[in-house]
Amino acid sequence: ARESWRQSNSWGDRVEEEPARPPGHGIHMHEKLSSPSRKRTIAESKKKHEEKQMKAQQLREKLREEKTLKLQKLMEREKDVRKWKEELLDQRRRMMEEKLLHAEFKREVQLQAIVKKAQEEEAKVNEIAFINTLEAQNKRHDVLNKLKEYEQRLNELQEERQRRQEEKQARDEAVQERKRALEAERQARVEELLLRRKEQEARIEQQRQEKEKAREDAARERARDREERLAALTAAQQEAMEELQKKIQLKHDESIRRHMEQIEQRKEKAAELSSGRHANTDYAPKLTPYERKKQCSLCNVMISSEVYLFSHIKGKKHQQAVRENSSIQGRELSDEEVEHLSLKKYIVDIVIESSVTVEPLKDGEEKQKIRKKAKKLKARMNSRAKEYESLMEAKSAVSDSPFKAKLQRLAKDLLKHLQMQDSCSLGSNKVPGLDRTLGEISRILEKENTADKIAFRAAGGLSALENVLQTVTAPTNLNAVSRVPFKSLCSAVNVYSLACSNCAENCTYVLFSNKITFLMDLLIHQFMVSVPDDHNATAGRSVNKQVFEDLTTGLLRITAVIFRCLISSFPDGNSHSTALKILQEVKSKSSQVEAFNSRVQDLISYVVNIGLVDKLCCCFLSVQGPVDENAKTASFLQGATAMLHGMCQLCVAVSGRSWNIFDNTRQDPTGLTAALQATDLVGVLHMLYCVLFHGTISDPNTASPKDSYAANTVQVAIQSLRFFNSFAVLDLPAFQSIVGAEGLSLAFRHIISSLLWYCSQHTCEGLLHEVIICVGYFTVNNTDNQLIVQSGRHPTVLQKLCQLPFQYFSDPRLIKVLFPSLIAACYNNPQNKIILEQEMSCVLLATFIQDFAQSSGQVDNQLSQQREKIFSSQDYLELSNRFPRQSWEEARQFFLKK
Question: Is the pTM of this model over 0.70?
Answer without folding.
Answer: no
